[in-house]
Write a structure and sequence with these properties.
CATH topology of the largest domain: Beta-Lactamase
Keywords: Cytoplasm, Iron, Kinase, Magnesium, Metal-binding, Phosphoprotein, Transferase, Two-component regulatory system
Distance between the termini: 92 Å
Oligomer: single chain
Helix content: 40-55%
Biased composition (Low complexity): 28-53
CATH class of the largest domain: Alpha Beta
Cofactor: heme; Mg(2+)
GO molecular function, one term: oxygen binding
Number of strands: 16
Region (Disordered): 1-76, 328-354
């Protein structure tokens, strides 16, 4: 029953208020410590001073001797003076947490309640924050998690008008109390509105002396709730102003770091730290997509368990960070543990200081999204509001700029390297090769006038060495001029050949020589390159197992006509003799036939073994 007239409520003891105590069991839908525990009212050292409104935040107990006697009823003028004092006290505080606690303590003191609580309502009409007075932390922990707004606590959310009950257990919305919850009977509740919007509710239970809350108590609480709305609004305005100031300072620091060319990870770490400070979060992570799956991996983390979070992954589908990246908009939840759209990062799960509220915003770069900025708070803390989400989006924009600058800086550095390589290749071709070629021509012409045969042979060998040097330089020039698409598509064939030969050196005990002649990158298709690498590895493996060689050479040649590739692997080992071809040789032969090519085995004049593997190149 709910009367419109306070006097009528006073006359009817059946009038009830729908708010439990300080912590109701959401599963049971109750009110009380787990439903709504409220700690004993803060009291001054003197009942008279307390009646005058002093000692509202003093935790000392001034209860009359024996602890069971009722508090003397303050005179009306003294009570009004206490109310005015409480209102002025609320106006002095500008930090929202202190304002909220001051509201509950004042309400408990002015109404002579044993327990009090204040619940903050989120955008889903549930309690996102629950502050209690009158119950120890140990007892509150035994009762369980804070309520979400079911049972009598939800009555005020659904019907935001003052509610007064003589026995809350008789109300239809009451479902009882959870384990360890102290017994509660009388109840008084009132809504708090900020700028005509529901902010939360004040809940009071167990008026001292076994009495019921009366119309005067309701009037005092209603007046206090109006003043509380103004105080909360002022505190939020102050908080928003300070937060904007901190955000501007942070963005200025980040901008200076970006302009200074600071390392990307260092800039991302700075962004993460400042975003966590401004948004009052407990953990922040910058997640970037991984190839080829596209799943998100934590590149930078700061805050709770940051060391365990770095490198952790979240699926692109099934996480708030992935949702933000896909939709190019923020994704928010008040509890990541129960939200079906989201997954917590591994350290945020049970047993690790679980986190609840999470917000993820995309990192936009041009028309694409390159990742997400994700912030979370410990379970039980309030969720991220729209203003905080907007602030966080500003930090995400800065992170995206840092990543884009890093990408463009890398491109610029690569372009500078390519220009330098082109210059070196040009100088080698125009200067070194021409001089070597001229020297070789001079030596060749000199052989005609040299009479001693041994001298002619030595000069001829020198000319051959010059020709070999010219081939090496030409190969180097071609490597310096590797096409851009080959660099982007994966390791060039030249580099992969070098890696294969290097790996074989571990088994041979010496590094084989490697020469690559001709435009292999532009002429050898990917499928043929894989065969070349496999045959090279197999041939060197055979040399290591059977030849007992002390020297080996690998030569890959693509003639200028570019119609056929020839791979030669030569060693100075024991040779084949009459040995039956091994499995390795058969594999190389099979690869040659698969490519339409041939495999040949030869014995060089100075002994050893030479494997010649060739395959035709595609036309055009």
């Amino acid at each position: 029953m709910r009367e419109a007239d306070p006097a009528a409520r006073e006359a009817d003891p059946a009038v009830r208020t729908a708010g439990p105590t300080t912590r109701a069991t959401d599963s049971a839908g109750t009110v009380g410590p787990a439903a709504c525990p409220v700690a004993p009212a803060a009291r001054g050292t003197d009942p008279a001073a307390r009646a005058a409104g002093h000692g509202v935040r003093d935790g000392r107990d001034a209860r009359p001797a024996g602890g069971s006697a009722a508090w003397p009823r303050p005179a009306v003028p003294d009570r009004m003076h206490g109310l005015l004092t409480a209102v002025m006290d609320l106006g002095r505080d500008l930090e929202l947490p202190q304002v909220l606690r001051g509201i509950v303590e004042a309400a408990v003191s002015l109404t002579d309640a044993e327990y009090g609580a204040l619940g903050v309502i989120d955008d889903r009409s549930r309690l996102s924050q629950f502050l209690t007075v009158g119950m120890s932390d140990e007892l509150a922990a035994r009762i369980g998690p804070a309520p979400c707004g079911h049972g009598i606590l939800g009555e005020l959310i659904r019907n935001p008008t003052p509610l007064r009950l003589d026995d809350l257990s008789r109300h239809p919305s009451s479902f009882g109390f959870p384990a360890h919850h102290p017994p509660m009977h009388t109840f008084l509740g009132a809504p708090i509105r900020v700028r005509d919007e529901a902010f939360g509710n004040i809940y009071l239970t167990e008026k001292r002396g076994g009495k019921s809350f009366d119309a005067d108590d309701e009037a005092v609480l209603t007046t206090l709730s109006i003043a509380a709305g103004v105080a909360i609004d002022n505190a939020r305005l102050y908080h928003d102003s300070r937060r904007r100031e901190h955000r501007l300072e942070a963005l200025g620091e980040i901008t200076r770091a970006l302009l200074a060319g600071t390392d990307t990870d260092e800039v991302l770490g700075l962004i993460a730290r400042r975003a966590m400070e401004v948004a009052d979060a407990d953990l922040v992570a910058v997640l970037l997509p991984s190839e080829p799956s596209g799943d998100l991996t934590v590149r930078v983390a700061h805050g709770d368990l940051a060391d365990r979070v770095r490198g952790a992954g979240l699926p692109a589908g099934g996480s708030l960070a992935g949702l933000a990246a896909r939709t190019r908009g923020p994704a928010v939840t008040t509890d990541v543990r129960t939200d079906p759209r989201a997954l917590p990062l591994p350290p945020e799960g049970p047993g690790h200081g679980a986190h609840g509220p999470v917000v993820a915003v995309p990192l936009p770069v041009d028309d694409a999204v390159c990742g997400a900025l994700r912030l979370s708070r410990r379970a039980g803390r309030p969720g991220f509001d729209p203003t905080e989400t907007e602030l966080i989006s500003g930090f995400a924009d800065q992170a995206a700029i840092a990543l884009e600058l890093a990408r463009r800086r890398a491109q610029s550095e690569e372009l500078a390297v390519l220009h330098d390589r082109d210059r070196i290749a040009r100088d080698l071709h125009d200067l070194a090769i021409q001089r070597l070629f001229a020297t070789g021509m001079t030596l060749q012409s000199a052989t005609r006038v040299i009479e001693r045969p041994d001298a002619v042979e030595r000069v001829t060998r020198a000319v051959d060495d010059l020709d070999a040097t010219i081939q090496i330089i030409r190969s180097t020039i071609l490597q310096l001029r590797t096409p851009a698409d080959d660099r982007a598509g994966g390791p060039a064939l030249r580099r992969r050949m070098a890696e294969t030969v290097q790996l074989a050196a571990q088994h041979l005990g010496f590094p084989p020589a490697l020469r690559i002649v001709g435009p292999v990158e532009s002429s050898v298709p990917d499928h043929l390159a894989e065969h070349v690498l496999a045959v090279t590895a197999e041939a060197l493996s055979n040399t290591a197992r059977h030849a007992g060689a002390g020297r080996a050479e690998v030569v890959l040649t693509v003639p200028d006509t570019a119609d056929r590739l020839v791979l030669t692997v030569t060693d100075d080992g024991a040779g084949l003799g009459g040995a039956v071809p091994t499995g390795g040789l058969r594999n190389m032969d099979a690869r040659a036939r698969q490519c339409g090519g041939t495999l040949g085995l030869r014995v060089p004049d100075d002994g050893g073994t030479r494997i010649v593997w060739s395959a035709p190149l595609p036309a055009g």
